[in-house]
Amino acid sequence: MGTENLLVDIKDGVALLTINRPKVLNALHTSVIAELQETFEALNANPAVKVIVITGSGEKAFVAGADIAEMAVMDAQQALVFARTGQRLVNFIGAMPKPVIAAVNGFALGGGMELALACDFIYASDNAKMGLPEVTLGIMPGFGGSQKFARLLGRSRANELIFTGKMLSAAEAKEWGIVNAVFPAAELVGKALETAARIVGNGLLGVAHAKEAIRRGLDMTEPDGMDYESVLFASLFASCDQKEGMGAFVEKRKPNFTGS
Ligand code: CO8
């Protein structure tokens, strides 16, 4: 399974999705964004896939940004369509019930950083470099970076990162709370797959509801978020997974979840 610029490998409930345009550091051309949209939709609909890990091919880059050669000749109307196409993708990844882990194996810049930020969390290789260098090209972030970084880092750090266009090392990105963990490059994808496998063993309806509560809750007041959490929490008590998970605990056996 795969497309012109994407490799897809599905094993034991985990899909490993690799952006495969290493000659241009996996830059996001419109065609790559369309392939990503189509592939994420297919993986979301595929019952054999429970968790997705996304990475870049080659040793240098996760994704070095939107394709500058393509953007160089865009007018404002084309740029608006391009930004909305990228935003549709990052919004889809954020809202899909299945968890998505970004394994950032090198440069994650501009649209590449924004793609990683759309995922549920990020692991990085020790040689990774991350940032939003759009202002060095005379533009600004357009695939959600200004909104996501302001919420994740707070206004001051988001401002500094975006106004300077500077790159953070993997260690700095961990210190800033952008990445959860840093691994030697050769171990990165294996570690992400290990974490994905651990999630696959859990009640995936609970995982999906938790993802929804966290995502939607971030846009609510805390009391509204608590209210929303209680509704999702309660709905799980009508699920097979709740009966199986608690039954298995009482019977001192491993649960066998069905995600229903
Ligand atoms: N787009 C197109 N081609 C790229 C890109 C890119 N983003 N990045 C690298 N490449 C190409 C290079 O042109 C080069 O091609 P060639 O071999 O044909 O010359 C090849 O990849 C290898 O790159 P380098 O030789 O430059 O490799 P270095 O190791 O010397 O440098 C860097 C690596 C530092 C990552 C460097 O390539 C670089 O600075 N790349 C651009 C990074 C960047 O500015 N990214 C942000 C782009 S803007 C963006 O993503 C906006 C998103 C929101 C869009 C909003 C809608 C309008």
TrEMBL record:
Source organism, top-level taxon: Bacteria
GO terms, biological process: fatty acid beta-oxidation
Gene Ontology MF term list: hydro-lyase activity
InterPro entries according to UniProt: ClpP/crotonase-like_dom_sf, Enoyl-CoA_hyd/isom_CS, Enoyl-CoA_hydra/iso, Enoyl-CoA_hydra_C
Keyword line: Lyase
Keyword Lyase (UniProt): yes
CDD domains hit by this protein: crotonase-like (cd06558)
Protein family: Belongs to the enoyl-CoA hydratase/isomerase family.
Name of the protein described by the UniProt record: Crotonase
Organism: Geobacter hydrogenophilus
